[in-house]
Amino acid sequence: MSEPNPASARGTDQDATPVFAVEERILGIPKSRWPGIIAPLVMGAIFLGLWEGIVRYRGIPAYILPGPMEILKTLGTDWPTLSGALWVTLRITFAALIAAVSVGVSLAILFTQSKWLERSLLPYAVILQVTPVVAIAPLIIIWVGDVNLSLLICAWLVAFFPILSNTILGLNSADHNLVALFQLYGANRWQTMRYLRLPASLPYFLGGLKISGGLALIGAVVAEFVAGTGGSASGLAYRILESGYQLKIPRMFAALLMISVSGIAIFLATSYISHRLLHRWHESAVRRES
Amino acid sequence: MTEAPPQGRAGQRPLVSIRKLSKKFSNGTLALRDVDLDLFPGEFVSLLGPSGCGKSTLLRIISDLSQPSAGTIEWPGADRADAYGKAEHSLGFVFQEPTLMPWAQTLDNVTLPLRLRRMATSEANARAEAMLALVGLKGFEKAYPRELSGGMKMRVSIARALVTEPKVLLMDEPFAALDEITRHKLNDDLLAVWERNRFTAVFVTHSVFESVYLSQRIVVMAARPGRVMSELQVDAPFPRDNLFRTSAEYAHLCRLGSEALKAAIEA
Ligand SMILES: Nc1ncnc2c1ncn2[C@@H]1O[C@H](COP(=O)(O)OP(=O)(O)O)[C@@H](O)[C@H]1O
Ligand SMILES: [Mg+2]
User: Fold this and answer.
1) Which of B103, B116, B164 sits opposite A191 (nearest CB)?
2) CB contact under 8 A, A185 and B102
3) What residues in A contact B64, CB-CB < 8 Å?
4) B139: containing domain
5) In a 3-state reduction of DSSP, which class is residue B82?
6) Which helix (H) or strand (E) holds B247?
7) Which residue, B166, B194, B211, sits at the end of a domain?
8) Is B193 within the bounds of a domain?
9) Is B117 close to A185, i.e. CB distance below 8 A?
10) Tens digit of pLDDT for each residue in A218-251?
11) Does residue B22 lie in a domain region?
């Protein structure tokens, strides 16, 4: 007779050690994830430290390359101007993103209802997408007149295509057998859209949204560079141009930092929304224990 | 010996009557040729045949998802057609894949056919809950499909097909992707539900054993072109259980079925 396995000798399931031990968490984040967070932070700290060190050691003047401390200080002192500019840029970005979502999704729905419409309109959407926004921005500014509206249109132009093309793909990717099932139960177009195509397209739409969020910001900034108009209602791009003319390089870096941080924040926000909406059911958002 | 309603008996009006039905696809494939088939109320029929013999195509035509190129399909025994002459809700369909909506919880998946009929939510939920209990999924109403095993997903799919209380349940190799133990269990549970609700079951399979275990009548089909080759009666009484599965009668019928299938493959 062989020795009984010590684990099974105890008997019940409750006594057995779980196969997947629950991972220890630090600050709510699983232990295994920490290296992925700490490594880039350490890397960044080393980089900033070197930067500051070199600027101080070599005595590089601030109008050529300001050190990180100087940039932070400028961010503080110039905050009133810069925060106003940030607000202007973000307002255009979000308005453009909202417009991109509404136009992109509506067009995608319209296109799935009529192949004919899709065939005749989609090529123009592609043309708008592949034409560099810097090239058409001056025209738009001349035609529209109002600067803010022109910037909004430019940012929208850049942002809407990923949402349109992803949503079209998503709406058409509903399981064929489910489509047949809806047909079997006599579902009308609206029901098929509401209960089948729209939910099926959600992961694709959210993928487009992540891309478009960043593009809307880029569009808003690039268009403002082209417009180059100042005044109280100018955004971060104009502040960068202005700082360049006035050789206020620390302020330029501070504005640049604000744009980057905004971009990262938009990406994190869209990723979070995507995760919230998909984590119960979509493979891309499901965390698996291996 | 049979206590189930006899099949094909003269005088009984069929629920579905298929005559000289052919289906040719636009690419030239003759998927079905001159198929004659009657389905009687409350019977359990299996369609047995090699892959490509048109079993799925036949189910799609019965369910009005596809139109025949020639021949007729009539519903003399049912007030199936509505005012528009369109078939609705009197059919349930179970695909080889569970075909559930991954974003919807079990209960919402099952209430779908009812919601499409604009039934009040409370009533739809009550019916779906009852149907889920019947297929052994009580307590899983809030689970998402990805949280269920393959067999459980299939049960949800069956519950969804039955929630409208259809006269006919069409199943296209529903258990082919499941392991044997799960398949046997689902076979038993399907028979139990069928004995209770007595819909007409049309079960597509390429397993002789499964078809003998489940059905009262096996329609053997051959491919290229898809056609009906022969028919086999299975007169064993219900309920059937493991005793039947190990009986000499079952072994004998399986041998007959295998021979018929072999003949169909070689034809
Ligand atoms: N939509 C289609 N277009 C063209 N040929 C098809 C189509 N659907 C099925 N077929 C062909 O019809 C034949 C029968 O197919 P099917 O009904 O799926 O067989 P089974 O379900 O018995 O395996 C096969 O040869 C298949 O290739
Ligand atoms: Mg098939």
Assistant:
1) B116
2) no
3) 184
4) 100-166
5) coil
6) none
7) B166
8) yes
9) yes
10) 999 999 988 876 665 789 999 999 999 999 999 9
11) no
Distance CA B177, CA B156 (A): 15
Pair B47, B126 in one domain: no
CA–CA distances in Å: residue A138 to residues A12, A104, A185: 76, 24, 53
- Closest CB from A175, A185, A199 relative to B113: A185
Same-domain status, B117 and B45: no
| B56 contacts on A by Cβ (under 8 Å) | none
Domains and CATH numbers, chain A: 1-60 (no CATH), 67-285 (1.10.3720.10)
Residue type, A174: A
My answer on whether B158 and B204 are in the same domain is no
How many structural domains does chain B have?
2
Residue B60 domain-assigned (yes or no):
yes
> Using CA of residue A267, residue A269, residue A273, residue A278, what is the dihedral sign?
positive
CB A129 within 8 A of CB A159: no
Domain annotation covers residue B86: no
A175 contacts in B (CB within 8 Å)?
Answer: 99
Query: Cβ of B112 and A191 within 8 Å?
Result: no
Final residue in a domain of this structure, among B166, B183, B215: B166
Count of all residues that appear for chain B in the document? 267
Interface test with A, best of B97, B112, B144 (most A CBs within 10 A): B112
CB contact under 8 A, B102 and A282: yes
Mean pLDDT of A261-285: 91
How many C-beta atoms surround the C-beta of residue B147 within 10 A?
A: 15
Measured from the Cβ of residue B258, the count of other Cβ atoms closer than 10 Å reads 13
Apex CA A71: angle with CA A68 and CA A74, to 5°?
A: 155
Per-residue pLDDT reduced to its tens digit, A121-171: 889 988 888 888 888 888 888 898 888 899 999 999 999 999 999 999 999
A27-77 pLDDT tens trace: 777 788 888 889 999 999 999 999 999 999 999 998 899 999 999 999 999
Q: pLDDT per residue over B4-48, tens digit each?
A: 444 445 567 888 999 999 999 999 999 999 999 999 999 999 999
| Mean pLDDT computed over every residue of chain B | 89
The complex scores an ipTM of 0.89
By CA distance, what is B82's nearest residue in A? A186
Compute the count of residue pairs across chains A and B with CB atoms less than 8 Å apart: 54
Contact status of A284 with chain B (Cβ, < 8 Å): no
